[in-house]
Amino acid sequence: MIGIIKGTGACLPEKEVDNNELARIMDTSDEWIRERTGIIRRHLISGETTVSMSARAAERALENAGVAAEDIDMILVSTVSSNVVLPSTACAVQELIGASRAVCFDLNAACTGFLFALNTAQAYFHAGVVGKVLIIGAESLSNLVNWADRGTAILFGDGAGAAVLVAGEGEFPQLVMQSNGTKGDVLTCSSPFDRGKDSPVKADMAASQGETYIQMNGQEVFKFAVRQVPKCIEELLEKCDKRPEDIDLFVLHQANARIMEGIAKRLKTDISKFPMNLMEYGNTSSASIPILLDELHRSGRLKKGMKLVLAGFGAGLSWGATYMEWDA
Ligand code: COA
Q1: Average pLDDT for residues 185-204, to the nearest whole number?
Q2: Cα(147) to centroid of ligand 1, in Å?
Q3: Which of 260, 247, 284, 9 minimizes the C-alpha distance to 158?
Q4: Does the annotation count 19 as an active-site position?
Q5: If you average pLDDT over every residue of the chain, what do you get?
Q6: What is the DSSP letter of 172?
Q7: Beta 41-43 vs 74-78: how paired, if at all?
Q8: For residue 328, what pLDDT is reported?
Q9: Catalytic annotation on 143?
């Protein structure tokens, strides 16, 4: 048994902030941001939360799949930026959508999170212990961004995407998943609970809150993405006995248009096979792949039988790719 995506959904915050608006609060310009990243605008929370966006995306995915919330066996949420720590975002979603039978937990693999959640769900399908799974990638990265740091603040956006998987016949999907913690320092965000050597009981609570923002060595992350992602996709294609020209679409984490172009070039594949929506949403971390899948699905670009490669990459460092044939 494998999990087959039968429905998708997304939720973007209403508030849109374009590059010109950012240029009014920091030393940057629309031209610089577009040239270096491809991003034109992003949606930022203003009233919405990671939980509320997750629940909305989930409801849309369930409706799209024709599956009732009560029939879901498992909810997996990938996030690094939830408004809740306890209970998990997945449990909070369970309550909001009424998925009373589901077992729920969260997963943190940064921008690779949706892909790892998808693969985790597939392992449960393969083991025969689930029949219907809801996976969600959701982020409110605007809460983790230092708005005084133009090197990172221009990149990220908020949003959520979801997919409903239903058990069907098929072989376990080919996949590649990798992590390298020794290079973790190129993209970090410390926790407000990191109180250093002090015991939390004795720590000065005010001082311990510290600055817990995303910090990044942009050039190192860029190099990592354009080197590792094509290698990983090539490894995946070899496992599937396929070549890049056999693939209809490469649905990649939406970080940066130049990264996408670099990956396409290394795979000697036309960029038109790499759909992009980062212009509208920026980098929404683990939400980017399901938001893109939802757009492709609802616009009719995904057709039954299409051969897809999904690939994610990001903090950890972590990266991975999965092959699937579209069957919604
Ligand atoms: N607006 C204007 N100038 C900016 C700027 C901004 N938003 N951010 C940085 N700069 C400046 C720098 O200060 C630097 O100025 P200097 O030459 O006077 O020192 C100059 O632009 C070049 O900075 P640099 O960091 O070398 O730019 P870059 O070409 O590497 O582009 C990124 C920066 C962040 C766009 C690029 O490195 C990148 O996209 N990296 C990958 C990031 C990513 O995708 N992370 C998430 C992965 S999941």
Answers
A1: 70
A2: 15
A3: 284
A4: no
A5: 94
A6: P
A7: unpaired
A8: 87
A9: no
Pairing of strands 16-18, 2-11: unpaired
- For residues 97 and 62, is the Cβ–Cβ distance under 8 A? yes
Catalytic residue (choose from 111, 189, 232, 256): 111
CB burial of 222-246 (b: ≥16 within 10 Å; e: otherwise) equals bebbbebbbebbbebbeebeeebee
CA dist 16 and 20 (Å) reads 11
**218 Cα–ligand 1 center, Å:** 6
Residue-wise pLDDT for 113-144, tens only, equals 999 999 999 999 999 999 999 999 999 999 99
Counting atoms of ligand 1 from 1, which one is nearest the CA of 28? 1
Give residue 191 CA to ligand 1 midpoint distance, Å: 24
Q: In which residue are the tokens 């030393």 written?
A: 27
Shortest-distance Cα residue to atom 8 of ligand 1: 151
297 is a catalytic site residue: no
Per-residue pLDDT band for 208 (boundaries 50, 70, 90) equals very low
Q: What is the pTM of this model?
A: 0.95
**Distances from the Cα of 217 to the Cαs of 118, 157, 183, 187, 223, in angstroms?**
28, 19, 11, 6, 10
Pocket residue to mutate for ligand 1, from 17, 28, 36, most atoms within 8 A of Cβ: 36
What does the pLDDT read at residue 322?
97
Helix (H) or strand (E) holding 120: helix 113-127
Q: Which residues line ligand 1 (CB under 6 A)?
A: 28, 32-33, 36-37, 111, 150-151, 154-155, 216, 218-219, 221-222, 255-256, 283, 314
pLDDT at 256 over 90: yes
Contact 298, 91 (CB under 8 A): no
